[in-house]
Predict the 3D structure of the following.
Amino acid sequence: MPPIVWRAGRRRPALTGVPAGTIIAFILSTRSLLPWLVAALTAGASGLAGLPAAAQDHPVEYERADIERGAQLYDEFCSACHGDDGDAVPGVNLMSGQFRFATTDQNLRRIMTRGIPGSGMPPGTYSDADQIALVAYVRNMRDYDGGVVTLGDAGRGRAIYEGKGDCASCHRVAGRGSRSGPDLTAIGSVRGAGSMRETLLDPTGNMLPHNRPLRAVTRGGEVITGRRLNEDTYTVQIFDEQERLMSLDKADLQELTPVADSPMPSYAETLSETELADLLAYLVTLRGLVTQ
């Protein structure tokens, strides 16, 4: 095999002086180099363009919250043309991964934002987060089950949130409430009603990894439990149960572990089905805007 020459001064390595067949064989035998080698070959190795999307773009997994948000966006912006099952456009079946042009997640994002000239696919204006969510949903359409969730009255749901549910004692919405639990100001933009219902009924079983509380024990024996706000190699910042912001040096801790059980109570026995439906109706309205 001839030597591989890297050209300096570029964001991605470029290959020169190597036959395409040799490069492809090298890629297949060196999987760890695949992501950036494929990018470097995109212009020259045109044979890759006809491969299924899964052959060129294979992330390990997508976040459940992104998939659920993507399902909402798809229903609002995409289903009218592509259909609920993604098979309404001839030659395209989003559920089974059959695409005309998109071979990677980046291709999908580019098509979403630029459209396809000369076709019925218009350009769209999506934030980076919405692009990620749509791609996550499209990649998981076949296995996604959003469930059928009944929504009640949002006004009554807000009353439950502030009253019987006592949600504000842990959560914060538009600057009001406690900081001890996750901020819910934009929860309707990142979580679907089905996912939120499961969390209300079984908080521990449906707790997202980044929402899991931490238990820290200092070398002096002090136990600090609370919500992780930020963490780096040397420190961790926690909102403790008294809503105090604690910045801890990891070198001063003898233990730092995630808490297995959620501090949030289950509402399976506390709220009726009607009350749950009302509470969910309120939660899905929380999209980052201040509500009066």
Observations:
- The chain has a mean pLDDT of 78.
